[in-house]
Amino acid sequence: MTIAEIARRAGVSKAAVSRYLNNGYISTEKREAIRRVIEETGYVPSRQAQMLRTGKSRMIGVIVPRIDSGSVSRVVAGISSELEEQRYRLLLAVTDNRVEKELEYLEVFRGSMVDGVILVATILTAAHRRAIEALGVPIVLIGQRMEGLSCVYHDDHGAAYAMTQLLLQGGRTQIGYIGVTPRDKAAGAARRAGWQQALLDAGLEPVPAHMEQSDFSVDGGHAAAERLFARAPALQAVFCATDTIAIGAKRYLEQQGRRIPEQVALVGIGHSTLSELVSPRLATAHYYYQSSGVEAARTLVEIIEQDTDRKKQIMLGFEVYSGQTV
How far apart are CA 280 and CA 85, in angstroms? Predict the structure, then answer.
């Protein structure tokens, strides 16, 4: 099956088929005729030929920290749907939350046939900046903000502030914090700053003894809550940087016979599937993870096809879900 044969069967010119395959403009009628013939024949264009003809592989490298995460899977779903719509394919690389693997994959994609890279970023270092500058193809970050790069990220400070306000509005004044490493500028530093600012604006002083650090797991949240309440047993509420941490903290409090929310109120961030399944239902901030994937993919394709990177930085909002734990 060749382009000429596709054109003959569809009743269009070879140029029209070529424009269709390269996502160029053709009339709706011709596009539908070509699509129908391609579906009937199972025609797959040669990628090598396409690259020689256009200089593009129509492949996008996507680097993610993990795949067994509800938030990451929603991000990837958004990327995948938009790339499919734009007639690109993705090549997925999973780093298992290891910084050295992120750098390794950036190097791999520098020497491979991808038109661009989407990085679902966690901890960004000077080494990341150097690797990105050496990449040679456009890149868009998701989840973190870095000056001079196109990024799609969340209002982490605003979400943490709003969730802490929710606790304050319930009359809680002794509010603890369980977060992640501040090296993570979004989930770590920005969410901690939002918690602190909400307390300060309410005339309360953030207490270092009321702060604890966890990883992103339920078990980590459980262990962090145990350490936190050993130091500060009179806490009336806890802001957790993620839903998984909050669910771990909830499990610990219930094991200790603490009633939620009567004795201790609890909030998280992320609006994960698990947050809806636990009882009482977790109060959390809903993030538009799938939309972040769509926006990042759309931005990257725009950069590739217009050959211009406007360094767009898109901050997505959030919604507060009050749940039953406040």
Answer: 39
Dump the DSSP string for 68-123: S-HHHHHHHHHHHHHHHHTT-EEEEEE-TT-HHHHHHHHHHHHTSS-SEEEEE-SS
User: H helices then E strands: how many in the chain?
Assistant: 13, 12
Nearest CA among 189, 194, 215 for reference residue 124? 189
Amino acid at 192: R
Contact 62, 78 (CB under 8 A): no
Q: Residue 67's pLDDT is what?
A: 86
pLDDT of residue 41: 86
Coil/strand/helix, residue 305? helix
Q: Please state, in angstroms and rounded to a whole number, the distance separating the CA atoms of residues 322 and 132.
A: 40
Q: Give the separation between CA 7 and CA 260, rounded to whole angstroms.
A: 67
φ/ψ (deg, to 5) at 177? -140, 130
The closest alpha carbon to 178, from 222, 213, 206, 209, belongs to 213
Residue burial 39-68, b: 16+ Cβ < 10 Å; e: rest: eeeebebeeeebeeeeebbbbbbbbbbeee
Question: Which residue did the predictor score with more confidence, 235 or 98?
Answer: 235
Q: What is the pLDDT of residue 26?
A: 87
Secondary element (H or E) of residue 316 = strand 313-316
Give me the pLDDT at residue 218, please: 96
User: In the predicted model, is pLDDT for residue 163 greater than 90?
Assistant: yes
Q: What is the dihedral of CA 252, 253, 255, 260, to 10 degrees?
A: -140
The least confident of 47-51, 61-65, 89-93, 147-151 is 47-51
